[in-house]
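Reminder to self: tokens first, then the designed residues, so the page reads top to bottom the way the pipeline ran.
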């Protein structure tokens, strides 16, 4: 299964129109960061 499809099914609790990035994109970046050994925001920023 494609992880981005899985993440797109997660309900986003944020207020519509008050965010710049999709929750599915943020979760995918978090997964990639974790898989490459990142542990914090700095690890995410480098991807």
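Designed residues (47 positions):
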């Amino acid at each position: 299964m494609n992880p981005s499809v899985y993440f797109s099914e997660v309900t986003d609790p944020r207020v519509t129109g008050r965010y710049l990035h999709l929750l599915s994109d943020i979760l995918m970046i978090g997964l990639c960061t974790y898989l490459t050994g990142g542990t914090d925001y700095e690890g995410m920023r480098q991807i």
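The chain has a mean pLDDT of 87.
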